[in-house]
Specification:
The chain has 203 residues and is an alpha+beta fold. The protein is built from 8 helices and 4 strands, in the order βαβαββαααααα. The protein has 2 domains: 4-76 and 190-196, 3-Layer(aba) Sandwich (Glutaredoxin), CATH 3.40.30.10; 82-187, Glutathione S-transferase Yfyf (Class Pi), Chain A, domain 2. A 4-stranded mixed sheet has the order 2-1-3-4, with helices on one face. Helix 1 links the parallel strand 1 and strand 2. It catalyses: RX + glutathione = an S-substituted glutathione + a halide anion + H(+). Homodimer.
C-alpha cells in the first residue's frame, strides 16, 4: 500500500474532501497540519507553492480535485467505466463551480460590492444550484450520480462545512435530498472514526 501524506492547514476547507476520501477507503495517511508560522518556510517546497498537497510514496502532487479523483480510483468510487467516470466528474465539477461562486463573494474585499453580490448569491445562485442538485439526489436514491455511492457524494459531504462557513448559513436546511446524501457519508463507519479523532476547527 502506498504511503500517503496530506499537507494542509489546520482547517477543513479544501483539504477535507481529500481527508474524507482517504478515510472512507480506509487508506492510512499522515494528516500533516501546517501552522501559519510554519507555512512561509514550507511553501517553496510545494509544487505550486500552495496546499492542499497529497504526497504518495514521497511524490508531492497538487490540485484538490485531481488528488480526490486519484484516491477515488484507488477505493473504487470513480465509476466502473469511462462513461460513469464522466458523469461523476460532471457532478463534482458542478459542485466546485458552486464553491467558486460562493468563494468569490465571501472573499470580496470591497464591503459595498460584497453586499450587492451577497444579494445575488442568496437570491439566485444558491437556490439555482441547490434546487438542481436536490432533484438529482432524489432521482439517484440519495446519491448525486449513478444511484450509488461515488466520490461525488464524499466530496460534497467533505466540502459542505466550508460552504456553510462561507455563507454563514445552513445551506441544506430546505434541501432534504441533499442532506440525505451527506448523512449517508457521515454515517459511514470510517468517516465516523475520522471525525471522532480530527481536530475541532471553525473552518
Amino acid at each position: 500500500m502506498p504511503d500517503y501524506k496530506v499537507y494542509y492547514f489546520n482547517v477543513k476547507a479544501l483539504g477535507e474532501p481529500l481527508r474524507f476520501l482517504l478515510s472512507y477507503g480506509n487508506l492510512p495517511f499522515d494528516d500533516v497540519r501546517i501552522t501559519r508560522e510554519e507555512w512561509p518556510a514550507l511553501k517553496p517546497t510545494m509544487p505550486m507553492g500552495q496546499m492542499p498537497v497529497l504526497e504518495v510514496d514521497g511524490k508531492r502532487v497538487h490540485q484538490s480535485l485531481a488528488m480526490c479523483r486519484y484516491v477515488a480510483k484507488q477505493i473504487n468510487l470513480a465509476g466502473d467505466n469511462p462513461l460513469e467516470a464522466l458523469q461523476i466528474d460532471a457532478i463534482v465539477d458542478t459542485i466546485n463551480d458552486f464553491r467558486l461562486k460562493i468563494a468569490i463573494v465571501a472573499y470580496e474585499p470591497d464591503d459595498i460590492v460584497k453586499e450587492k453580490k451577497i444579494i445575488t448569491l442568496n437570491n439566485e445562485v444558491i437556490p439555482f444550484y441547490l434546487t438542481k442538485l436536490n432533484v438529482i439526489a432524489k432521482e439517484n436514491n440519495g446519491h448525486l450520480v449513478l444511484g450509488k455511492p461515488t466520490w461525488a457524494d464524499v466530496y460534497f459531504a467533505g466540502i459542505l462545512d466550508y460552504l456553510n462557513y462561507l455563507t454563514k448559513t445552513n445551506l441544506l436546511e430546505n434541501f432534504p435530498n441533499l442532506q440525505e446524501v451527506v448523512n449517508k457519508v457521515l454515517d459511514h463507519e470510517n468517516i465516523k472514526a475520522y471525525i471522532a479523532k480530527r481536530p475541532i476547527t471553525e473552518v
